[in-house]
Amino acid sequence: MNTWNKIVLGIVAIGMTAGLATAGDANKIVVDGSTTVGPIAKAFAEYYMGQHPDVNITVSESGSGNGAKSLINAACDVAAMSRPMKNSEMKAAKDAGVLPIEHIAAMDGIAVVVHPSNPLANLTIEQIRDIYTGKITNWKELGGPDRPMVAISRDTNSGTYETFETMVMNKAKMGEKVEYVGSNGAIRQRVMSTPAAIGYVGLAFTEEVKPLTVNGVEASAETVASKEYPISRPLYLYTNGRPKQSSPLHDFINLPDAPEGKKIVEDLGFVPSN
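Request: output the structure for the sequence above.
Response:
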């Protein structure tokens, strides 16, 4: 585990228990949303609070969809999302008098991962889709061992799920036997413990599992930055309007553009946005 992943658990605990009551206070920043963006938000929070002890930042990871709802309901200051806001969310925000402003936190690739013992090295987008629809059900169909596949997916409220649905599934329906879990970490753990499993996670969650090349391209910082890797995406932080210049929220939301923020992003295994 790298340095920036060793985040004090109290940040999350405080965010889960008391954070939502603090949204709107200039010296208190509440972040809610994506479990993929969560490590970035928590590392940014640890760094910023270290520089500004008078500022309290809480981070919750309830999923991209819930992050959007929290921003719309004025329950958070920053919605962390691994997908862009939907038109329906933008409309709900407008109806509530909220103006979501998009900030790019980092770039990420969705890595397709299997158990380290799996001999396969590459899958095409079409093969991955066929696995998740249930058209392909045994690894031997792809030249692997005679073993029924265990397909693991993120829950449907996840931005990672919605990106995978768009970029890989092409709106094809997931098969009935697909298992759903609530976080990148849960997928990684399931794949680590299940030799027949396949899952998909953000680049920062590939430790102890085996990432496959997709269409012959490795999931890496370089291929994500060049957009050569076929399942690449931006990660977002949304605010209600543009934060006041020089305010803690303004400084926090602009960390991705600062040298310190870029280093944090790189140390976590993500890709700086520019």
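Residues 98 and 240 are 6 Å apart (CA to CA).
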